[in-house]
């Protein structure tokens, strides 16, 4: 088989896989412009007579709460989660990667060990703690762990990246009179930008799409983020409003897509360089 034929076969297979992967996206876009009664029964990819009624109903919100309230709650949760995770993980990563202190290896091993602990094991004890503290139906249970470096995967990612930075930087900065705070802020942190942006992307997407956490701790509709609001379109009446739910789903994808496109060029660099050195 000639090189030209192999390339043609390869591109044909790649295009076929691309069509399969993009079909659900195309169907969702088309369904958002269909009447709700045609979404389940119709097999057409795009409607013969598009309608924007689904987006109008999605914009109205649920239970008297505007859709923009749900967007605001999701933005606040995702933004504070990114801020807390990046700040706490960077400081913990710097301590494990650049400092020498008693018990560092044991503490690092214990931190990595928490990755093996299922989240579901901690649901009941955490809920009891927050309930007795009077923090149910607030954002605190969803955010407090982000500011305490409880995301072991992100700490590990930053540690591995910081270990690739030359030790000579620390020595030169120390000779120039830098303490640990200035060394961390002025030298290590700027050089760790790819890893920090990688952490930001994953944290933003995971928090934006989180359903279980808000379902457990939030009771008031005015505090709901978008994932809970999407679920509320089902069974809010005797007939589920699939059209409005799909329309809001597409609207909810826009911030995630924009955030990813803005920083995706750092993603591969951050993940790739974080595993170079053990």
UniProtKB/TrEMBL annotation:
Q: Does the keyword Transport apply?
A: yes
Q: Where are the transmembrane segments?
A: 12-33, 75-96, 108-130, 142-162, 183-208, 242-263
Domain named ABC transmembrane type-1: which ranges?
Answer: 71-263
Kindly state which keywords UniProt assigns to this record, in alphabetical order: Cell membrane, Membrane, Transmembrane, Transmembrane helix, Transport
Q: Where does the signal sequence lie?
A: none
Which PROSITE patterns does the entry mention?
ABC_TM1 (PS50928)
Offer one Pfam family short name for this entry.
BPD_transp_1
Q: Which InterPro entries match?
A: MetI-like, MetI-like_sf
Its membrane topology is listed as: Multi-pass membrane protein
Cell compartment(s), UniProt: Cell membrane
Its main localization is membrane
Q: Which family is this sequence assigned to?
A: Belongs to the binding-protein-dependent transport system permease family.
Name of this protein: Carbohydrate ABC transporter permease
Source organism (scientific name): Pseudonocardia yunnanensis
